[in-house]
Amino acid sequence: MSTKNINKVILAYSGGLDTSVILTWLKDTYDCEVVTFTADIGQGEEVEPARAKAKQMGVKEIFIEDLKEEFVRDYVFPMFRANTIYEGEYLLGTSIARPLIAKRLVEIANETGADAISHGATGKGNDQVRFELGAYALKPDVHVIAPWREWDLTSREKLLAYAEQKGIPIEDKRKGASPYSMDANLLHISYEGGELEDPWCEPEESMWKWTVSPEKAPDTAESIELEFKHGDPTALNGKTLSPAKLLASLNELGGKHGIGRDDIVENRYVGMKSRGCYETPGGTILLKAHRAMESLTLDREVTHLKDELMPRYAKLIYNGYWWSPERTALQTLIDETQKTVNGTVRLKLFKGSVSVTGRKSESDSLFDESIATFEDDAGAYNQKDAEGFIKLNALRLKIQARKK
User: Fold this and answer.
1) Which of 153, 193, 202, 217 has a CA-to-CA distance to 167 between 20 and 30 Å?
2) 91 vs 221: CA distance, rounded Å
3) Over the Cα atoms of the chain, what is R_g?
4) Predicted local distance difference test score (pLDDT) of residue 155
5) Choice among 98, 104, 275, 359 that is catalytic
6) What pLDDT, in 10s, does the model give residues 358-367?
7) How confident is the model at residue 370 (pLDDT cuts 50, 70, 90)?
8) Topology classification of domain 185-356
9) Candidates 40, 115, 127, 232; catalytic one
10) Given this model, what pLDDT does residue 154 score?
11) 232 annotated active-site
């Protein structure tokens, strides 16, 4: 598609330096109308200033949307039903936000009759893949404009010079601003760049925004209870909360007790290794609680099957395949397993750690005390049966040993 065919573009817009420059660059390069879309997914910053900024820059159609509940209900919670972790550590806070933003970009494009969508992800990162795979899955003929892969504005200084040249209003926050590239939503906050580009460099304590250091956390442990229904948390300490409010409450509790910090070197889909630091306080608590609930209510082989499939599921989300048929198929299986994951988990929060201190399920517990007891089981389990079980399972080992 040539530039003259682009009449209207939907831009994922934050109001910051990058997307403000992109807004003007799109107009100059494609001679088109730009529609801005700003999503509030719990990043902790006001999104309304983006409206004033967009108006100041001549944008006529401006979309500002509160997507916090949809984000947690339809993306975060389904992911946690699978106990999802990428490469053993990363709780996928950035990855899981991208399919929702891609969906709304496409929907707004359809609503407004736009010819293209645009984003501010760089050509080195995973987000360009996530945004665009999502968009193509939902609108196969969509045209995507990725300025970072087209322009020559390859540094912050060049962006600032372009902004000054074009009269783009930019609040220069360099003095006292974080030296890191940060991304936040209700699930996590991430830090990359700056001194973190040296994997040996320890993060400064001042970098962390959501959590106190475990050393400075309260000296007294705090006990909480999480109630689950069909694998999703529904109540905290007996109080029913919406998905977004429940996760926000867990974030506050986890942050208070220094829970959820991670320092990771991960393998990006585009081929390079990347060092990032993450705060996921509520998600860390939720993962521990969900596994505890499953330990009581899921069949052994179903549990093991989920654990075998989880790395594949995690990789699909990390690499941007949320809208793929294989992720949808896996989600159907995962959701089927969660029908019996109902009950309450009690946890203790203390100086960076989360430990399970109790779990119960009135209707779906598979724990049978009469069988599991070390006391007299009154014939509920015949211990002599174990002899034949062991001998049958040992048969192939005995045959192999004799051959040696």
Assistant:
1) 193
2) 24
3) 25
4) 85
5) 98
6) 999 999 999 9
7) confident
8) Argininosuccinate synthetase, chain A, domain 2 (3.90.1260)
9) 127
10) 86
11) no
Element (H, E) at 369: helix 369-372
Q: Per the structure block, which two tokens stand in for 33? A: 């109308």
Please state, in angstroms and rounded to a whole number, the distance separating the CA atoms of residues 224 and 246: 13
Give the chain's mean pLDDT. Answer: 94
Q: Do domains 3-75+98-166 and 185-356 have the same CATH topology?
A: no
How many DSSP H helices and E strands does the chain contain? 13, 14
- Identify the active-site residue in 181, 295, 353, 365: 181
Say whether 127 is catalytic: yes
Task: Please give the DSSP secondary-structure letter assigned to residue 75.
Answer: I
Is 262 marked active-site? no
pLDDT for 112 beyond 80: yes
Domain boundaries, the chain: 3-75+98-166, 185-356
Question: Residue ranges of the alpha helices (H) in 89-172?
Answer: 98-112, 127-138, 156-166
Is 183 a known active-site residue? no
CATH topology of domain 3-75+98-166: Rossmann fold (3.40.50)
Euclidean distance between the first and the last CA atom of the chain, given in angstroms as a whole number: 68
- Single out the residue of 146, 110, 188 nearest to residue 12, CA to CA: 146
